[in-house]
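Milestone M4 deliverable, item 7.
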Amino acid sequence: MYKEVLRSIENIEIFPIISLIIFVLFFIGITVWAFRVPKEYIDHMKSLPMGDDELNENQP
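Output delivered:
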């Protein structure tokens, strides 16, 4: 039944192509960002989970 409903929709074959293009562009964008991000930003983000403990220890 689902096959017949999908076959009756005009231009349905473009949706898998569009979703694949969106996924590939997103993946490429994240990969480029990961290689171009400054090392200082990575170190800052890496230290954030530990930063909360240090702040809590100094508070009364």
